[in-house]
Amino acid sequence: MRALTRGGRAFTAAALAAATAVLVGAAGLVAGGSGDARAAGGAVVLDEGELDFTPRLADGKLELQIDDRTGDTTVVREPSQVVLHAPASSLQYTPDPVATALGTTNMDSWQLNGWEAENIFAPEPGWNGSEAGGDIEVSLSGYDGPDIFGMAAYTRETDSVNGPATAYLGSAESVQRTFTLSGDEERLLPIWQFTAEGVYRLTFTVTSGGSSDTETLAVVVGDDVDPAGVLPGDGSTPTASPTDAPTGSATASPSPTVPAAHVIAEGHVDLAARPTDGDLEFQLKEGTELNHEWYEPGEIVMHVRPAAKRKIPEGYEFLGTPGDAVWWLPLQQNAGIVWPGWNTTEYAKADLDGRVSFRLDSVQGPGNFAMFYNDAMGVPVVSLNSGDGLPDTHTLGGGTHSHFDWVFSAEGVYRTTFTVSATLADGTKVSDTETIAWVVGDDTDPSTVTPGEGDEPTATPTATPSESASQTPTVTPSVSASGSASASAPATDPGTASSGSGGTSSTGGSGGSGTSTAGGLASTGAQVAVIAGVAVVALLVGGGAVFFVRSRRTAQ
């Protein structure tokens, strides 16, 4: 085991690009604290629910144990016999005060008990000091891992008054190694921060009343490493024999039976309307304004990685039951997952008589798809929703780039068919209908999925267009529908009920230049030279409740 104090602490930025990995479920394992999820050496994988690290007296001696409440009853476990898993979805915004307190950076990090804890499926580890008969000294007495680990207290209430974070312990040189756990504390919930993916081994020593105990906890961060293959404790536990290996283990993926599609699993991509020889083409633009490629929808497969998995918050019942799982692509860019937007920047406003219509004709797949944004009061405004019938339409003015929240309700293969149409300034009606294939989760290898319309026997329509729906609808002009967006919050389209203009957007005039009001990692405006900057959408309750966005501030 390496010494606790390490010479360097440079943040590995490449770790933010979460790699596509095989989930525990793909290996035939059952996740949770029921004891069914087994790692190497027979360890239990803990990847969801409430846990308490509890120093307690047993026969007059202090023992550090884990009270696992992830099942129907509390199960007491030894830290050296479990593997804690911080999944890819635990990658979160790092408040500046937490970074300062733990000697890290304000780049996104993997966090347990972070600000988004109530909306992600991840362990919630706490500390219980009430069973030791007095105060307890907790020390990080040993550490091994790919980068920095730390624990700190920082809440929204603290942030609202610009208060500092309180560091409990950490592996960075500047951070203390010991804190006192009060004997009256029944559940202390600090943020556990990890700044890189990989396997960590944290050795804790607890001392109270002259007695002490030392335990090593194995933690797998991200999905680059399968937690089922990690030895618990300090890694010295003998590996399970081949006969003990879980059945149904993942094998090599079958070769695609069709030419491999271009898989887009992370980064920026726009669904775009483009003028071509007097007609309109619906294409996908992957990348930034200065570095991008164009693709036909029938050439690509969009992959929504497991890191997008979230819980449905209250107020979003149109997505399902609050607390249930969905796969959520937010309107701001998150590292490691795809960031889809809409783009009409190749059409100047003067080129069009009205707006460009993006109509969702049908959705095939195991669940529903919805797209929406939040108004100035934080109320979701739904633009597209296959769960309540199709077709649904949203529109954009020329010279516009816009982002929304996209949500899928189940894992599997989806096919979304869109008709994109417009009326040109000379009265010509143009349109294009295309189907985009999506793979949600990791149950299906996206490289084996046929792009475009496909032919899966299990892909049953979840919604289809009505017989009266026109294949090439005429866009009704609206002098007020400029495609612009408020810098403080998206505004509801003043046009017809079928038009949506929310989300974050950049809009351009006749020259196609744009002003960006979308946050994120990539520059995607119509012309980067005239981008005015980044504005944060205010009061994002919902999309913002799941992906809370704040301006980063420097700790005082």
From TrEMBL:
Keywords (alphabetical) are: Membrane, Signal, Transmembrane, Transmembrane helix
Gly residues biased stretches: 500-514
Coiled coil segments of this chain:
none
Q: What is this protein called?
A: TIGR03769 domain-containing protein
| InterPro entries in the cross-refs | Surface-anchored_actinobac (IPR022435)
Q: Which NCBIfam families match?
A: choice_anch_M, P_ac_wall_RPT
Residue ranges crossing the lipid bilayer per the database entry: 528-549
- Residue ranges for the region (Disordered) are 228-256, 437-520
Query: Compositionally biased, Low complexity: which spans?
Result: 457-499
Q: Where is the signal peptide?
A: 1-26
The organism named in the record is Streptomyces himalayensis subsp. himalayensis
